[in-house]
Amino acid sequence: MAKILNILPSDDYTLTIELNNHHKIIYDMKPRLQTVRFSQLADINRFKAVWVKNENILIWDSLCQITIDEIISNIGR
């Protein structure tokens, strides 16, 4: 299982996710901002406050979270 080494949130609501297997994922969160789960991240300051927990979960304080497995699963859709 890939582990998250670094996360870089951008002004365009993308996340650059660096993994321990030398891959990088650029994940566009804009479509997810329309959902109830992620709607509070439309505030750019909240969006940029992301941090990594246990090397596999992206956390936005008590607002929401997403795992690397869910992100990888969503890429193919």
UniProtKB/TrEMBL annotation:
It comes from the Bacteria. The lineage of its organism: Bacteria, Bacillati, Bacillota, Tissierellia, Sedimentibacter. It holds the Pfam family DUF2442. This is DUF2442 domain-containing protein. It comes from Sedimentibacter acidaminivorans. Gene3D superfamilies: NE0471-like N-terminal domain (3.30.2020.10). SUPFAM superfamilies: NE0471 N-terminal domain-like. InterPro entries: DUF2442, NE0471-like_N.
